[in-house]
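Following up on my earlier thread - several people asked me to post the actual chain instead of describing it. Fair enough. Here it is, all 206 residues.
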Amino acid sequence: MDIALLGATGRVGQQLIELLLENNHKVTALVRNVHRLPISHTNLKVIEGDAREEHVLDCLFQGQNAVISTLSTDGANVISESMPVIVKVMTRHSIKRIITVGTAGILQSRTEPSLYRFQSNESKRKLTRAAEDHLKGFLTLKESNLLWTIVCPTYLPDGNITAHYRVEKNVLPLDGKKISTGDTAHFIYEELLNPQFPHCRVGISE
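Reply from S.P.:
Thanks for posting it. Predicted structure:
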């Protein structure tokens, strides 16, 4: 499979690249600085640019079967500003499948189902800017014609793949506290190969 990957230099992104390459997929990765991606492989192509720029995404999405985004907000509204462009260019290239990484804050609250977690008493975060940016990205995907899935981890420490974790549609698994970067990458890969959560947010935790 030919995969376009945004956010390739991030903690989840780098583990996902290694997983894709180990399984003989071809990856075209978008980075803002090529020197921040310490991976080299015959099946890896790296493009330098900004995910908010249409001409960059036109180049990135050429000939791809699916798009994966592990972009973070980075304090600059990256998600909300890039997602409309991503949807537009994917549609132009007739790519339907996209998996993105969000935040558990945009899942529904268990105790207050009409609210997102970041709006409810379930959230311990005082700052909501990142969740608000991810929420705008989610709403953009929800209104699109793409086959989308948003993977929403809670606390995300570095860690290897164990393949032992819980997932749940649109809410965080009960008493979910954390999930490793490796297992988050593993779930994204499994969802890419065998879609189980189309048009859903997915809570993931140990």
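Residues 101 and 151 are 5 Å apart (CA to CA). That should answer part of your original question.
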